[in-house]
């Protein structure tokens, strides 16, 4: 195709969520509810970790990072999706689309690094409890978290710059409910082989290594649990590991299905959109509940937070003034 006189598209049209006739409003309500659950659940974890000194530990520090990522990840596209549904206008400007694409992958890749750090933290806490406090100091945790965030940024930066500079002349219709790499490459008119190779390499190197490290960590954790003399402690530890592995299965399984393909440009996106809902909406909404539902420290922190009497605090503040 001759792209010499190509006029780049100034806006794209998002096809939207998988359509089921007569259920559009119900689907909208479900997406809105999942987004609210994500904001409330993850926001509550962040607030509790900040306010309750009992939760200012490595595990909850990494969990609050995961909550920030889940809020950022969903906010990168769900508000636009909801606005488009209400206005019946599925357009998105070119630069808005590229910005959405960047933040979507930035938060997405960083999430895998943070989940890996959570598994590392649990491995050290369960398998090396005597050395845990000397290894996972506040300074080490901060450096690991910063490495995860910067790793997520630099992993996707070059690929997204290349994607932004492609000529989009074939069509301006994106067969997805957000700006994703595959649908964008499909409507581009340039050579996408380098970008596809980088995306495939990112999936294999970053995500596969993250999954391998997480699974090996939990394998050592399970072996250590089996050697525990107390049955009660075994059951408690197993229930915690099982809930964490549910997150791992949902997240990694859906991402592998969507992105672990050498040629995403020629893929069919009908099934991809349905699977994407799992890790873009369902997993972020469930993460705070899965990670904390059996955690007594978090339950105590929530109870203390709910028992605080706001009027009394306001009155005390005025007295102090």
From TrEMBL:
Pfam families registered for this protein in UniProt: 7tm_4
Protein name: Olfactory receptor
Gene3D superfamilies membership: Rhodopsin 7-helix transmembrane proteins
Family: Belongs to the G-protein coupled receptor 1 family.
The keyword Glycoprotein belongs to this UniProt entry's keyword annotation: yes
Membrane topology: Multi-pass membrane protein
GO molecular function ontology, one term from the record: olfactory receptor activity
Keywords attached to this entry: Cell membrane, G-protein coupled receptor, Glycoprotein, Membrane, Olfaction, Receptor, Sensory transduction, Transducer, Transmembrane, Transmembrane helix
Top-level lineage group: Eukaryota
GO CC, alphabetical: plasma membrane
Transmembrane segments annotated in the record for this chain: 26-51, 98-120, 140-158, 200-226, 238-260, 275-293
Residue ranges occupied by any G-protein coupled receptors family 1 profile domain in the UniProt entry: 41-291
Organism: Pantherophis guttatus
InterPro entries: GPCR_Rhodpsn, GPCR_Rhodpsn_7TM, Olfact_rcpt, Olfact_rcpt_6C-like
Cell compartment(s), UniProt: Cell membrane
CDD domains according to UniProt: 7tmA_OR6C-like
């Amino acid at each position: 195709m001759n792209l010499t006189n190509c006029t780049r598209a100034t806006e794209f049209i998002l096809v939207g969520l998988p359509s089921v006739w007569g259920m559009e409003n119900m689907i909208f309500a479900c997406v809105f509810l999942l987004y609210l659950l994500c904001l409330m659940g993850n926001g509550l974890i962040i607030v509790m970790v900040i306010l309750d000194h009992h939760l200012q530990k490595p595990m909850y520090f990494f969990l609050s990072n995961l909550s920030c990522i889940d809020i950022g990840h969903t906010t990168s596209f769900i508000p636009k999706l909801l606005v488009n549904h209400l206005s019946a206008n599925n357009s998105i400007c070119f630069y808005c689309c590229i910005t959405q694409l960047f933040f979507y992958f930035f938060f997405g890749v960083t999430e895998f690094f943070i989940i890996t750090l959570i598994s590392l933290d649990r491995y050290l806490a369960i398998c090396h409890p005597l050395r845990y406090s000397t290894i996972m100091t506040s300074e080490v945790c901060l450096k690991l978290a910063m490495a995860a965030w910067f790793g997520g940024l630099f992993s996707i930066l070059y690929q997204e710059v290349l994607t932004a500079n492609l000529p989009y002349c074939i069509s301006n219709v994106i067969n997805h409910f957000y700006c994703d790499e595959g649908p964008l490459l499909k409507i581009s008119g340039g050579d996408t082989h380098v970008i596809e190779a980088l995306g495939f390499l990112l999936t294999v190197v970053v995500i596969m290594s993250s999954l391998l490290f997480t699974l090996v960590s939990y394998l050592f954790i399970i072996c250590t649990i089996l050697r525990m003399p107390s049955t009660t402690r075994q059951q408690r530890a197993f229930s915690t590991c099982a809930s964490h592995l549910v997150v791992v299965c949902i997240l990694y399984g859906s991402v592998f299905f969507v992105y672990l393909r050498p040629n995403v440009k020629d893929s069919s996106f009908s099934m991809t959109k349905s699977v994407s809902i799992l890790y873009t909406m369902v997993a972020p909404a469930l993460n705070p509940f899965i990670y904390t539902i059996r955690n007594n420290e978090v339950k105590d922190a929530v109870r203390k937070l709910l028992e605080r009497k706001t009027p009394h605090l306001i009155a005390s503040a005025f007295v102090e003034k």
